[in-house]
Description:
The chain is mainly α. The protein has helices spanning 3-14, 16-38, 43-73.
Amino acid sequence: MDLASAKVIGAGLAAIGVGAAAAGVGNVFGSFLESAIRNPAAADGQQGRLFIGFAAAELLGLMAFAVAMIILYAI
C-alpha cells in the first residue's frame, strides 16, 4: 500500500467522529425535548446544560474533522 492510499484510509477513519458528533447532538436535543415535555416548568433551568452539551458534542466533531484534514493535507 502506498502513502496516498494510507492517507485516504486514515482520514476516512478519522472522519467517523463527525458522524458520531451528529448522533451526539441529536441525543442531547432529544433528551432535552423529552424532559421538557415531561416537566415544562423545569425546562428553563435546563437550557444552559443543553447548550453546554451541544457545544461539547460539536467540539468533538470539529476536532475529528481537523484531524482528518491534517492527515490528508499536512502529512
